[in-house]
Write a structure and sequence with these properties.
alpha+beta; 10 strands; 4 helices; elongated
């Protein structure tokens, strides 16, 4: 249809667009917020660690908001070349970060780009115990630590007493007799501390024998899926 010149075109009908439901728009906003939070957690940043004893600063890179304090401590030990077994702790501002904070993330601790931690070393304290044998001879065993196992203490005592052959030493503290199965326990767990007086009892027990019954046969420590217990008649 051709209209005369100067005549306005006929209006065309416009399709109406329904408004987007509110719940859909709210879900979209939640998704955006979640994506932003995830991107923030994945963003890497660096912090500064000041070593108090060495009076130097080290930059620790490639950290994220989800990095735990325990992971940061291990990185700091590696970067500052701490000796194996050495202990240290970090401070952030006025916060002294201890064992209860190890599982917390840097975000939870308030650490972000450019945060400054202070690194402090814990001095390794040692102590000594005194051991008396059945005839009254006294020995001193020093260089012990709280986290040291009881088995190490027994070996130190046997070395101080120059025990050789099939003689083994058992220790007694007061009325408590320490059993062979307690060798893996720490000294602090057994209540052994500096200045503790122990009594050493020598016994003839074959080396390599069972730690419970001390039979005269040599015991091979191993595991087999076909093992049977004497008297039971069936598999473990």
């Amino acid at each position: 249809l051709r209209l005369p010149r100067g005549h306005p075109p006929a209006p065309r009908a416009m399709a109406s667009v329904a408004p987007e439901p509110l719940d859909r728009r709210a879900g979209c906003c939640d998704g955006v917020a979640s994506a932003r939070a995830e991107a923030s957690a994945m963003a890497v940043f660096s912090v500064e660690v000041y070593a108090v004893e060495d009076n130097c600063t080290k930059t620790i890179d490639n950290l994220t908001a989800s990095t735990t304090l325990a992971a940061l401590v291990e990185i700091v030990k590696w970067e500052l070349a701490f000796e194996a077994g050495s202990e240290m702790y970090l401070t952030l501002g006025t916060q002294v970060l201890g064992p209860n904070d190890m599982s917390k993330t840097l975000e939870a601790l308030g650490a972000s780009q450019g945060a400054i931690f202070a690194c402090n070393c814990l001095e390794r304290t040692t102590f000594a115990v005194y051991v008396v044998d059945m005839i009254g001879r006294e020995y001193m065993v020093d260089g012990l630590e709280d986290g040291m196992s009881f088995a190490i203490l027994v070996s130190r005592v046997e070395r101080e007493m120059a025990v050789v052959g099939d003689v083994k030493v058992e220790l007694v503290a007061g009325t408590r007799h320490f059993e062979a199965h307690e060798g893996s326990k720490t000294l602090v767990a057994l209540g052994i501390s500096g200045g503790c007086l122990l009594t050493a009892v020598k016994q003839d027990k074959p080396k390599g024998s069972c730690s419970l019954c001390f039979c005269g046969y040599t015991v091979n420590c191993d595991v087999t899926v076909g093992a049977t217990h004497e008297g039971w008649g069936h598999r473990w």
